[in-house]
Amino acid sequence: MTEEYVIQAENLTKRFGDFTAVDHITFSVRRGEIFGFLGANGAGKTTAMRMLCGLSRPSEGKGTVAGFDIGRYPEKVKRNIGYMSQKFSLYEDLRVWENLRLYGGIYGMKDREIAEKTDTVLRSIDMESERNTMVCDLPLGWKQKLAFAVSTFHNPKIVFLDEPTGGVDPITRRRFWEQIYGAAASGITVFVTTHYMDEAEYCDRVSIMVDGRIKALDSPMALRNKFGVSDMDEVFRMLAREATRKGD
Amino acid sequence: MLKYLLEKEFKQIMRNKFIPRMIIAMPLFMMLIMPWAANQEVTNIRLTVVDNDRSITSDELVRKVVSSGYFIFQSVSDGSEEALRDVDAGKADIILDIPNGFEKDLQTERISGVMISSNSVNGTKGILGSSYLATIVNDFASSLSEDMMMVQPVLSNQNGKSFRIMPQYKFNPHLDYKVFMVPAIMVMLLTMITGFLPAFNIVGEKEAGTIEQINVTPTSRMQFILAKLIPYWCIGLIVFTLCMLLAVFVYSLIPVGSLLTIYIFAVVYIVAVSGMGLVVSNYSDTMQQAMFVMFFFIMIFLLMSGLLTPVASMPDWAQYITIFNPLKYFISVMRMVYLKGSGFAELVPHFLSLCGFAVVFNVWAILGYRKRN
Question: What is the pTM assigned to this prediction?
Answer without folding.
Answer: 0.80
